[in-house]
Specification:
The structure holds 2 protein chains of 2 kinds.
Chain A (H helix, E strand, L loop, with lengths): L2 E4 L2 E4 L5 E7 L6 E7 L3 E10 L2 E4 L7 E2 L9 E3 L8 E9 L5 E4 L3 E5 L1
Parallel strand pairs in A: 2-11
Antiparallel strand pairs in A: 1-3, 3-8, 4-5, 4-9, 5-6, 7-8, 9-10, 9-11
Chain B lengths: L2 E3 L4 E5 L4 E3 L2 E3 L5 E7 L6 E5 L10 E2 L10 E3 L8 E8 L5 E3 L3 E6 L1
Parallel strand pairs in B: 2-11
Antiparallel strand pairs in B: 1-4, 3-8, 5-6, 5-9, 7-8, 9-10, 9-11
The chains are: A mainly beta, B mainly beta.
Chain lengths: 112, 108
């Protein structure tokens, strides 16, 4: 499954807007955004079950998403905060009945 | 609400010893359970899923609905098993929730 994330690393200042990009090449319906923090595991931020449809996960506050196309699912931080320093993973659901989530390489975001 | 609990943040065993990584869940419906693994500097990847009832790299996991558990087991741990392991649950609303993870270290 082809899934890419950009940028791979970013350092930004508190209060600045940030967009993390996720792009898939195989027309999968379901896409997800997680953040990974030590001791907290992976926490679901937002997800989408198809173009034009998004839903909140466990920790949606401070993040926005949109799904105008099947291929792209950007994650936006309108005003970055130090608490949003994390590694962000995008994932797609692949497979039918025996599905799984396939993860992107991740984006390491540091908010100073 | 669905929740996944992995009670052990760290687990250390010697090579050749049995290993069990615990996972408990709470969900009112019929969940699908997964184990994912993240080796050093690699992306998260699926290890096994309960509906397949498969054994991958010697690991197995049985879904126990009575105890709401999905523990991961391997009879003889290998050094290359050292990694971060995550239990995950997918419910009817198409999201997937992960536990906090257990870091397994297999010592020589």
């Amino acid at each position: 499954a082809g899934i890419t994330q950009s940028p791979r690393h970013k350092v930004t200042e508190t209060g600045t807007p940030v967009t993390l990009r996720c792009h898939q090449t195989e027309n999968h319906r379901y896409m997800y955004w997680y953040r990974q923090d030590p001791g907290m595991g992976l926490r679901l931020i937002h997800y989408s079950v198809g173009a034009g449809i998004t839903d909140q996960g466990e920790v949606p506050n401070g993040y926005n998403v949109s799904r105008s196309t099947t291929e792209d699912f950007p994650l936006r931080l309108l005003s970055a905060a130090p608490s949003q320093t994390s590694v962000y993973f995008c994932a797609i659901r692949v497979g039918g009945e025996g599905y799984e989530q396939y993860f992107g390489p991740g984006t390491r975001l540091t908010v100073t | 609400a669905q929740r996944v609990t992995q009670p052990e943040k760290l687990l250390s065993v010697f090579k050749g010893a049995p290993v069990e990584l615990k996972c408990n869940y709470s969900y009112s419906g019929s969940p699908e359970l997964f184990w994912y693994v993240q080796y050093s500097r690699q992306r998260l990847q699926l290890l096994l899923r309960h509906i397949s009832r498969e054994s991958i790299k010697g690991f197995t996991a049985d879904l126990n609905k009575g105890e709401t558990s999905f523990h991961l087991k391997k009879p003889f741990a290998q050094e290359e098993d050292s990694a971060m392991y995550y239990c995950a649950l997918s419910g009817n609303n198409n999201d997937m929730r992960f536990g906090a993870g257990t870091r397994l270290t297999v010592k020589p």
